[in-house]
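Why does residue order matter? Because the sequence determines the fold. Keep that principle in mind as you read this record.
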Amino acid sequence: MLTGLQLRAARAILRISSDKLAELAGVSTPTVKRAEAVDGIPPIRARSLAAIQSALETAGIVFIAPDSTHGAGIYTAKRGAA
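Structure:
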C-alpha cells in the first residue's frame, strides 16, 4: 500500500504541482492533498489512490513496498534505456 509520504516525494521528484497531479490522475486537487497529508495510508478511496499511483508511474516513478529490511520508498525509472 502506498503512503502519503511516498506520494509527496514522488510529486516533488517530478516537480509537478498538486493541481497537475490531480489533472493527470483524473481526481480532484483536494483528493491529492488529502492523500499527501498523512505519512501513512492515505484516507481516500482505493480507486482514487490507484489513479494517482498510475499517473505517477506513467510519469516515471517506481514505488517500493516495505519489506522486512527496508521501509517503503520510491525511485525514478530510467527513460530511454535500451
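The first strand starts at residue 61 and ends at 64.
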